[in-house]
């Protein structure tokens, strides 16, 4: 299933907690940008995302790497009552009432992410690193 | 992912500091002082424009990531050899999102990042304007 502008989803974690509502604003390739209305459960993970944004803006890329792993372990996924199969998502960034994430080509079942890439961050396109 | 050892870093590897070579962009922040060893983030390999673009792709929302995306307009670059010649060092610190992440360090730790030590580092860094295309 392809996401569509103005579609709404619940953002669930691997424990089935509903963290809030995602409304898709626009898409660029595999990137999806939307509004995010947090639920009360979001408070339990909010600090991860706030710290992530602060670390990124401070160019603390080691901290960003650690937080990427913690956020990936949340196993975040989209859920909608009327949709049984949704794209798996990764690289979720939340703040200021907005959310952006990347979609995998694999689909999620109603019970959560599936496929070998679910819940993992994919390496970003990168410069030609001769040293790594 | 285990950090690569310094042996993996060729002396002719080019490294990039997003934000340019102003001393303020090279000083340690409190979180960086707590690292072992203390240091600031660099990206290795490729061109300055590619490093800036990599950062923009990692942090795509221009609102949430206003400050780092502003910093992406200028990149300071030098070879590992040039950096070592002025007393600093570079160690690979790869992550999933930034497999070419590295850390600029100094043998004297936090004290090594004094303005007096950073001044010669500034002189070996070459700045490139990297506006968003």
Notes on the structure:
By secondary structure, chain A is of the alpha+beta class. Chain A is built from two helices and six strands. In chain A, 18% of the residues lie in helices and 36% in strands. In chain A, a hairpin with a 2-residue loop joins strand 2 and strand 3 (31-38). In chain A, helix 1 (46-57) packs antiparallel against helix 2 (61-72). The radius of gyration of chain A is 15 Å and the shape is globular. Chain B is of the alpha+beta class and 133 residues long. Chain B has helices spanning 30-33, 48-58, 66-71, 80-85, 115-124, and strands spanning 14-18, 40-44, 74-79, 89-92, 101-105, 126-129. In chain B, strands 4-5-2-1-3-6 form a six-stranded antiparallel beta sheet. Classes of the chains: A alpha+beta (132), B alpha+beta (133).
Q: How many distinct beta strands of chain B?
A: 6
Terminus-to-terminus distance of chain A: 36 Å
Poorly predicted regions of chain A are 110-132
Number of helices of chain B: 5
Mean pLDDT of chain A: 84
From the alpha carbons, calculate the radius of gyration of chain A and give it in angstroms: 15 Å
Oligomeric state of shown chains: heterodimer
What proportion strand of chain B?
15-25%
Q: Count of DSSP helices of chain A?
A: 2
- Largest interface: pair, residues per side: A-B, 36 and 48 residues
Given the C-alpha coordinates, what overall shape of chain B results? globular
SSE order of chain B, one letter for each helix or strand:
EHEHHEHEEHE
Give the % helix of chain B: 25-40%
Summarize the structure.
With 132 residues, chain A is α+β, with helices and mostly antiparallel strands. Chain A has helices at residues 46-57, 61-72; strands spanning 8-12, 18-28, 31-38, 77-79, 86-95, 98-108. The longest helix of chain A has 12 residues, at 46-57.
């Amino acid at each position: 299933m392809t996401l569509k502008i103005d579609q709404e989803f619940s953002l669930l974690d691997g424990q089935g907690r509903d963290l809030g509502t995602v409304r898709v604003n626009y898409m660029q390739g595999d990137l999806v940008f939307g509004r995010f209305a947090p639920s009360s459960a979001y408070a339990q993970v909010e600090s991860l995302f706030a710290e992530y944004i602060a670390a990124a803006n401070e160019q603390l890329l080691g901290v960003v790497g650690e937080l990427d792993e913690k956020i990936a372990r949340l196993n975040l996924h989209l859920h909608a009552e009327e949709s049984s199969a949704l794209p798996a998502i990764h690289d979720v960034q939340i703040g200021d009432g907005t959310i952006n994430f990347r979609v995998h080509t694999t689909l999620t079942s109603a019970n959560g992410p599936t496929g070998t890439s679910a819940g993992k961050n994919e390496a970003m396109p990168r410069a030609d690193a001769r040293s790594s | 992912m285990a950090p690569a050892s310094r042996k993996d870093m060729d002396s002719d590897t080019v490294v990039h500091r997003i934000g340019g070579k102003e001393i303020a962009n090279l000083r340690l922040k409190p979180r960086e002082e707590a690292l072992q060893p203390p240091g600031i983030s660099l990206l290795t390999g490729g061109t300055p424009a590619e490093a800036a673009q990599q950062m923009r792709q990692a942090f795509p929302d221009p609102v949430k990531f206003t400050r780092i995306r502003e910093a992406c307009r200028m990149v300071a670059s030098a070879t590992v050899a040039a950096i070592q010649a002025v007393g600093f060092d570079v160690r690979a610190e790869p992550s999933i999102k930034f497999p070419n992440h590295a850390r600029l360090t100094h043998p004297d730790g936090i004290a090594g990042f004094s303005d007096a030590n950073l001044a010669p580092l500034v002189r070996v860094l070459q700045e490139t304007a990297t506006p968003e295309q």
